[in-house]
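Lab notebook, page 48
Experiment: co-folding of the full assembly
Goal: obtain a model of how the components sit together before planning crosslinking
Operator: M.T.
Materials (sequences as entered):
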Amino acid sequence: MDTRKPAQDFTLRIRRYDPDSGEAPYWDEHTVTLEPHRSVLEGLLQAKAKYDGSIGVRCSCRAAICGSCGVRINDKPGLACHTHLEEALKRSKDGKITVEPMGNMPVIKDLIVDMDAVHWKKINRVTPWLIGKTPVPEREYVVDRVSMVDVTQTMACIQCGACVSDCLSMEVDPGFIGPAALAKAYRFVGDPRDAEQQQRLKDLAEDPNGIYNCTHCFKCVEACPKGVAPMNQIMRLRRRAGSDHHIDDRNNGHRHEAAFVTLVKQGGLLHEAELLPRSYGGDSWFGKFAPKAGAELVSSLPVITKAVLRRKVNPKLALVPHKIPKQDVKAVREIFDTIGSREERYELNLYVVGDDKDLEQPVAGAVEDRSTT
Amino acid sequence: MPSHDVLIIGAGLAGQRAALAAAQAGVTVAIMSKVHPVRSHSVAAAGGINAAVSVTDDWRSHAYDTVKGSDFLGDQDAIEVMCSEAPAEVMHLEHIGVTFHRNDDGLLDLRAFGGASVKRTAYVADITGQAILHVLYEQLMKHSDTVDRYEEWFTTSLILDDEGTCTGCVARNIRTGDMEVFTAKNVILASGGAGQIWKPSTNALICTADGITQAYRAGVPLMDMEMIQYHPTTLLENGFLITEGARGEGAHLLNSEGERFMEKYAPNKMELASRDVVSRAEQTEINEGRGVGEDGAGIYLDITVVPKKRTLEALREIVNIGKDFAGVDITKEPILIRPGQHYIMGGVKTDVDGATPVPGLYAAGEVACVSVHGGNRLGANSLLDTLIFGRRSGEHAAERAKSMTMPTNDRTQLLKDEAEIKEIIGRPKTGRRVSEIKDELGTVMNRYVAVFRDEAGLQHAHEVVRRLKEEAKSAYIDDQGTVFNQDVLGAIELGYMLDAAECCVVAALERKESRGAQFRTDFPERNDDEWQKHINTSINGDDVPTIHYSPVTITQWQPEERKY
Ligand SMILES: Cc1cc2nc3c(=O)[nH]c(=O)nc-3n(C[C@H](O)[C@H](O)[C@H](O)COP(=O)(O)OP(=O)(O)OC[C@H]3O[C@@H](n4cnc5c(N)ncnc54)[C@H](O)[C@@H]3O)c2cc1C
Ligand code: SF4
Ligand code: SF4
Ligand code: FES
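Observation: model returned without errors.
Model output:
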């Protein structure tokens, strides 16, 4: 980004809605003059200050920390104060910057949505406070340094709702607990001071709208301005629930995942026809003969039939496993082996990064020297 | 008409801490905020919170550093309370869930901060305020059956009865435009600071002196209002803050000659001298032509000397701010900064329990002046201030409520406030726009009521503020609606800012010496004989505020020359 470019004109196309008027939403345009690296929020504020003070937008910090200004800009959710005008313009099809309220939440006025009705309700769903281990120590809980740095990634969530705005699962299932709330759940499940991790995980795994309801669409990872990567946190919750706490949930979420992994490991590619029976009956070839699998399969028959009739599925291709060259299967297995043999878990965490050579340097040594002089 | 034993206005750290303390004492509590609580400005606090938690540290050392930092204007009894109660407060935060950074032994890690003689700043990367604020909000959600939350409600006035006791407030539901009278046995003001009076400022757009002026208009004196902190490292570009944590981790300040100029001004503490000292040093370098950047108005902050891994782990937000708002990778190159308005040491005069001279009215946090910061606040002492005095006022107000009956309020103030809002909405578009007046105020204050001040500049600033007050009476807005009419609230906030600004200017004119954040080029020395006292400003109708003094409490530390 070049901060020295001179000011230029930007046209903002703002979606307006005035509940007082009783009229439908409409588009409103204003042209503002700012340097290209200024934010869309600064653009909105200039329009408000100069032309129309009635434009409704929540904002406070201007620096991507308070989480007030979540909106959709040219079809992508994000913070208005964290999106450069120039960058927004690049994504525009017609040379104008479109600003709309976030999705998946009811609009109150203009760009302001009702976060209580959706976002905060879901946050409340995950028992969002620490249930501390007892006895409470006299001083601090003594915990591993890295574990605190680890939960700091989810602590960094500013509750802006950008991830909620475009969550694909939530669109089809408004009951889904959703990315932000599940990231918040990880903040406690990952916190060694919490006494109820097992219960929390059980609850999230058993909930039909819980951790197994995410479709890995990455939308929340893309949307999040703070690198919280909610989907990653959801995957970690699943791993803890399934592998660490052996929670065999009634949604078959864990078995489905195990079956998925086994099939890919065996054949190098997924074999769809095997996936469903195994998810229901157990992660082996015999899975499909388990009574439970039978019952579930029968109940799934209408969907399967429909899919076949509409030519979404070709029975022949679906039933025969995919064939891929032997060396490719071998390569896939090697990946599994390498990762599986690692002692430490490789967690994608924002704060645990850096060059190894830096590790050897004393941390902030320069300070120590100076504060004693 | 909602009524509660304790009503808290403001849901930043001070307000939320007060609410939890009052709820724990077993009384009915309401907390009100014009933005959702987690959007409060406390969320922006980055660097950390001071407390002598280390076994090798002593709260008295913390207290002495604070007294010295205050340039001997802080009240030492209050400072003793704050510093001695700090370790327990930090442990409490840790127990309820704040994810404080640990050292390799699993204990709280501490970082260095300006003006401190040892490392005593606990932190969560550089999102300390956010981490604490969100954890307190978790507790409010947990205690939702005992604490009523009024989120997105805007307080317009405090209500006083005929005896001058505070009995509640009038507030507007921002979502609907409905006005309501809130009755309470005790009201705690926790509505934060006033940074928007200056342009630029590190403060959020909502820091508009609401509580300071509401109390002032109710007759409470404002104390130390001339003491405005300019933070040494705000982005040249837009005034955003680069946390002192950066210098705490070892970053250097450099002038155009590549010189670590702090050697000249504070040879012992260097970049980690008190904020007033560092800001003055920077401004001197800039004024004497050794600034950097396009018109020489900046200074380099060099964070590349901090190990990269450490920067990424402990200064993550600053990496992002550099990248997103200045286009600079701070792990690779220095970033352009300058001193910028950051904090108001002064505010509503209170005692160590948060009580103001008006019975039933408490104040805590940045809105208040206890005074623990005196002429200059040490970095990471503000979060501490909000929590300690938030808690104390919550506890005290709850106790007081237990022996009282619920007062009754009529609708007089509500009708007045409603009429005022109606009048603003109905103004013809002949005057100036609210945004224009706010802009002019900010620019003038940042020019004349800044790091260096003098009589002529302050006089000029005062004249401008008086004129803007007149113009504000006919300033017009566009929004005529009821739902989320932010426009009309902006006009009310402008009124708050103008009143508070006048108190700042008048107090700065009054103090004819240099102490802490007040540096008068026409009176460059500290003058303990005449000026080791607090300046208070009180409302005087529409006229210039009246001035009176109160003594500085000294317990164990006699004034001495301040050197870093
Ligand atoms: C960028 C930045 C970084 C900082 N870093 C640090 C740090 O590292 N360490 C440190 O100790 N200090 C730091 N500070 C200072 C510190 O953050 C603040 O002084 C402190 O958080 C103020 O808290 P508060 O609770 O008093 O007010 P705020 O957090 O500002 O809360 C004010 C509350 O009052 C409400 N309110 C205001 N007016 C009204 C009204 N009319 N009606 C209803 N509600 C109203 C608001 O909605 C809000 O909830 C920093 C400050 C800034 C600007
Ligand atoms: S990855 Fe999962 S949680 Fe994230 S947006 Fe997609 S479905 Fe929602
Ligand atoms: S996870 Fe990210 S996008 Fe979602 S609410 Fe938190 S900060 Fe916003
Ligand atoms: S204004 Fe605070 S996040 Fe954008």
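Interpretation: The domain at 118-137+145-244 of chain A is CATH 1.10.1060.10 (Fumarate Reductase Iron-sulfur Protein; Chain B, domain 2).
Next step: discuss with group before ordering constructs.
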